[in-house]
Amino acid sequence: MAVGEERARNRRGIRGWLNPYHYNAERWAYVFQRVSGVAILLYVIGHLGDTSFFVGGPTGTGPSASSWAFIGSIFENSFGHLILILVTLILFFHGTNGIRLILTEFGLIFKKPAAIEYPYKAKSLGSGQKYLIAVAIAAAVLAALWAFLVLFEGMG
Amino acid sequence: MKESRLMLIQYATAVVAVVLVSVHLIMQGVIYPYSTAISFSNMLSVYRNGFYAIFLEALLVIVLVHGFNGVRIILHELRQSAPWTRWVDAGTVVAIVAAVAYGTRTIILAIFGGVAG
Asked: What's the CA gap between A125 and A110, in Å, rounded?
């Protein structure tokens, strides 16, 4: 591979995240961890904005029932609740998958080194990591279901 | 600060954030029904409870440090140069300080501000 070609290949940036060629479950989890992290941060910034209306918004001086009712009239509807369910889904995946990544970072869920054998599968990507990705997906789905019941069925 | 220490901060804030966010969500849909949790009177009592006010401030700081430091890490992965590193690091600090200040302002006004109808 030419030097220029190799350099371009190593500088694919965000396009590189989303290229599915030769991706495995761990690589997709890596991509989703970053995408979901940015999405959650954007939600948190928006949440700082909407909760500030509890005290009258950016120019408020104290708790205001009318200001809080105003922001509630914008976000407390089916669309707003669907957004909250989506946020719950990605939040739980991000949190659970993040714990897997921390365990990986400290070498706690790697397989032990072994002789290299065909077909040369990476020993680091053992079943432990795949199970934890499945747990992360399950946790996210269950949490989203719980959020649905709380928001649309009045349970909680 | 060394990058290895910043990564440790990222992991530590992640673990703490999992606990704090879980408690925050439980307060919205388990301890109280959602409609009660977001009612004006309930939120006022939550903000004016010293323990919950400290909890919300801790949640604010931990989540914002984790979130903006995470974006910083992503931006460092995407591009590497000395000026880029300096600008991204400085921007991260400014973003954290600004966001924490705005969130803290909400908490302080909710505790000490006069209640309007």
From this structure: 7
